[in-house]
Design a protein that fits this description.
Largest sheet of chain B: 6 strands, mixed
Largest interface: A-B, 30 and 34 residues
CATH class of chain A: Mainly Alpha
Structural class of chain B: alpha/beta
Number of helices of chain A: 13
CATH superfamily of chain A: ABC transporter involved in vitamin B12 uptake, BtuC
Number of domains of chain A: 1
Strand content of chain B: 15-25%
Number of helices of chain B: 11
Order of helices and strands of chain A: HHHHHHHHHHHHH
CATH topology of chain B: Rossmann fold
CATH architecture of chain A: Orthogonal Bundle
Oligomer: heterodimer
Chain lengths: ~300, ~270
C-alpha cells in the first residue's frame, strides 16, 4: 500500500489501536495475577452512566467532560467495590459483579430516559468505538508526519491515547518492584512498610484511566479483551514476570495490527464487500492468540498444582 | 545492635519495654462479631526462641499478623524494640504461612529471596551483584543454593518453606516472626529450619514462632506463649508449658493421656 493511502486512512487508527491495546495489557498483567482480571470488564461497563451524566450536564459530546464523567463513574465504582468487599467481607469478584451490573443498568436506563438519540451516543458506539473513523484526512503521505500544518489536524484521540500509554508505562515502571512484591505476597509486603491498599487502589485507578481513554477511542470490546487475553497468553509463554509483561505487550501489538488489517482486508480477500469492525477483529485475534498459547505455550501447566491433577 | 536509649530521648512509660524486641499490650482483634484475639499482653524476651501455641482457631496467627500491622486490631498497642512498629520495620523479618501465597506466581526462587532486600533497595534502587550474592548466601544457608534459578511453582512444600526462610534471612533483621514454618514440611526441612533458627539465636537474634506440634516444643524453644483467644500462660518452657496450662488452653481438645505424656516428657 502506498503512503498516500496508508498514512491518512490507516496509520492513525492502527496507532490508536496499538496504544490502546498496550495501555490496557500492561496493568492487565498485574490484575490477572491478583485475580482481579475482570476489573477491566467492570470498569468498561461502569463508565457508561458517567458518560451519560456528563452529556446531560454539558449537553454536548465533547471529549473532556465525557472523560471526566467516565473517570468519575470509574472512581465511584472502585470505591463501591472496595467498600462492599470490606464491609461485606466477600470476595472481590462478587463485589464487582454487584457494582458493575448495577451501574451499567443505571447507564442504560439513563440513556433510554433521556434524549441522547440525536447524538452519537448509543450502545453500538459504546461497544465497538469508532476506530475506523479516526482517520487523518489532512495527511497526503509519509511526508505529512513532518508537516506541522497536517499534524495539527491529527485525530485528538491519537495524542490522548499516546499520553495515556506513557502514563500507564511510567506507573508500572516506577512501582514495578512494589507491585511485584505485593502481588505475590501482600502480607509480607505490608510488614516491610509497603502501603498495599494504596498501591492496589493506584493500580486499579491506572487501569481505569487506560480503560476510559481506550473506551472513548475504540470501545469496550477491545478494553475487555486487552486486559485479559494478552497477559493470559503471555503467562503461558513465560514463567518470569518480566517475560510475561514483555510478551503481553508483543501480543497486544500483534492483536491490534493483525486485527486491524484483517478487519479491513480480510473480507475483501474472501470476496465479501465490506470490511468488518476493527475493534471486534482485534479482540478476536487476541482471543485466537490466547487459544494458541493455551494449547502450545511452554508454561501452560500449573506447575504448582499437584502431579496428576 | 543499635543503642536505642541514646538514639532517642523519649521517656519509657513501661519499665523493661525498651529491652524487649516485641511487646503487645491489650491487643484485641476481631473478624466480624467474635474476637479472634482478646485483650492479649505479650512481652518477648530478647535473644530467645519463643513458641506461640494454642488450639486451632485460637488466634495465634492473627495475633502475629496484628503485631505486624497486616491486620488492624480493634484496640491494643504494639512496640518493637520500644518504638512504634513503623519506626522499626527494618529490624523485623517475617515468614508468612506457606499456603498464604499463590506459588504459580511467575517468578524464580532467587527473585523471591531478593524481595527481602526491598527496604535496602527501595522503590527504584539498582539491583547489584552484591545483592544477588547476598540472596545466594541466604539460599545456601537453608540448603537451597542449587534451586536459585527454579520457577517457584516447581518446589515441594518443604522447599517453598525454606525459600521463605531465606527471604526472611535476607531482611537482615533482629526479630524473626514465623507463622507455622513446620506445617506440612518434610523431616529434612524441619531439621534445616530449626538449625537456622538456632543459629540466629546464637547470633543474638530473637525468634518467635507460631507452632502447632506440642511434642517438639521443649526441644526447640526457650519460652512459650499459650493462647486461646486470651492469653493462657507466658514464660519459660518449664514455667508455662505444663499439664495445667495445656489443659487450660486446649480444654477437652487434648486427650488427658496426651497431657500426661507431655508432662512426663517435661519431667
Amino acid at each position: 500500500m502506498s503512503g498516500e493511502e496508508f498514512v491518512p486512512l490507516s496509520l492513525t487508527p492502527l496507532l490508536i489501536g496499538i496504544f490502546a491495546a498496550v495501555a490496557c495489557a500492561l496493568p492487565g498483567n498485574f490484575l490477572l495475577l491478583r485475580k482481579q482480571a475482570l476489573i477491566g470488564d467492570a470498569i468498561s461497563h461502569v463508565v457508561l452512566p458517567g458518560i451519560v451524566v456528563a452529556f446531560l450536564l454539558t449537553g454536548a459530546i465533547s471529549a473532556a467532560p465525557m472523560m471526566l464523567g467516565a473517570a468519575g463513574a470509574a472512581v465511584v465504582a472502585v470505591v463501591l467495590i472496595e467498600a462492599i468487599r470490606r464491609l461485606g467481607r466477600i470476595e472481590p469478584g462478587a463485589a464487582m459483579g454487584v457494582v458493575f451490573t448495577t451501574m451499567f443498568a443505571g447507564g442504560v436506563l439513563l440513556l433510554e430516559q433521556t434524549d441522547t438519540s440525536s447524538v452519537h451516543l448509543d450502545v453500538e458506539h459504546a461497544l465497538y468505538g469508532n476506530l475506523e473513523s479516526l482517520i487523518w484526512l489532512d495527511a497526503v503521505g509519509w511526508s505529512s508526519l513532518l508537516d506541522p500544518e497536517a499534524l495539527a489536524h491529527l485525530p485528538v484521540e491519537l495524542p490522548r491515547m499516546a499520553l495515556t500509554l506513557l502514563a500507564v508505562s511510567l506507573f508500572i515502571a516506577v512501582f514495578w518492584r512494589v507491585l511485584k512484591i505485593s502481588t505475590f505476597d501482600e502480607g509480607f509486603a505490608r510488614t516491610m512498610g509497603i502501603r498495599t491498599n494504596l498501591l492496589g487502589m493506584a493500580l486499579v485507578i491506572t487501569a481505569a484511566v487506560a480503560a476510559v481513554a481506550a473506551f472513548d477511542a475504540v470501545g469496550s470490546i477491545i478494553v475487555i479483551a486487552m486486559f485479559i487475553c494478552p497477559p493470559a497468553a503471555a503467562r503461558m509463554i513465560s514463567n518470569q514476570l518480566e517475560g510475561q509483561v514483555g510478551w503481553s505487550v508483543g501480543f497486544a501489538v500483534l492483536s491490534a495490527t493483525f486485527g486491524y488489517v484483517l478487519a479491513g482486508y480480510g473480507p475483501l480477500w474472501l470476496g465479501a464487500q465490506d470490511a468488518v469492525s476493527a475493534a471486534g477483529m482485534i479482540a478476536t485475534v487476541s482471543g485466537v492468540i490466547l487459544a494458541i498459547a493455551a494449547r502450545f505455550g511452554p508454561c501452560r501447566t500449573r506447575s504448582g498444582a499437584p502431579v496428576g491433577v | 545492635m543499635l543503642d536505642l536509649a541514646s538514639s532517642n530521648g523519649q521517656v519509657q512509660q513501661d519499665q523493661g519495654l525498651e529491652d524487649s524486641p516485641l511487646t503487645i499490650r491489650g491487643l484485641t482483634v476481631s473478624y466480624g462479631q467474635k474476637p479472634a484475639v482478646f485483650s492479649v499482653d505479650m512481652t518477648v524476651e530478647a535473644g530467645k526462641m519463643t513458641a506461640i501455641i494454642g488450639p486451632n482457631g485460637a488466634g495465634k496467627s492473627t495475633m502475629l499478623k496484628a503485631a505486624l500491622g497486616i491486620v488492624s486490631p480493634v484496640s491494643g498497642q504494639v512496640k518493637v524494640f520500644g518504638q512504634p512498629l513503623d519506626d522499626k520495620r527494618a529490624r523485623i523479618a517475617y515468614v508468612p504461612q506457606r499456603a498464604s501465597v499463590d506459588w504459580d506466581f511467575p517468578t524464580g526462587v532467587i527473585d523471591v529471596v531478593l524481595m527481602g532486600l526491598y527496604r535496602e533497595l527501595g522503590l527504584l534502587g539498582r539491583l547489584r551483584g552484591d545483592h544477588k550474592a547476598k540472596a545466594m548466601d541466604c539460599l545456601d544457608r537453608v540448603g537451597m543454593g542449587d534451586f536459585a534459578t527454579r520457577q517457584i511453582g516447581q518446589l515441594s512444600g518443604g522447599q517453598q518453606q525454606r525459600v521463605f526462610l531465606a527471604r526472611a534471612l535476607a531482611q537482615g533483621a533482629d526479630l524473626y516472626l514465623l507463622d507455622e514454618p513446620f506445617a506440612g514440611v518434610d523431616a529434612a526441612t524441619e531439621k534445616a529450619i530449626i538449625s537456622v533458627l538456632k543459629s540466629l539465636r546464637e547470633a543474638g537474634k530473637t525468634v518467635v514462632v507460631v507452632h502447632h506440634d506440642l511434642a517438639t516444643v521443649s526441644d526447640y524453644f526457650d519460652n512459650v506463649f499459650l493462647i486461646n483467644t486470651r492469653k493462657v500462660a507466658e514464660g519459660t518452657v518449664a514455667e508455662a508449658f505444663t499439664a495445667d496450662t495445656l489443659q487450660a488452653a486446649y480444654g477437652g481438645r487434648l486427650a488427658t493421656a496426651q497431657v500426661d505424656q507431655l508432662a512426663l516428657a517435661l519431667g
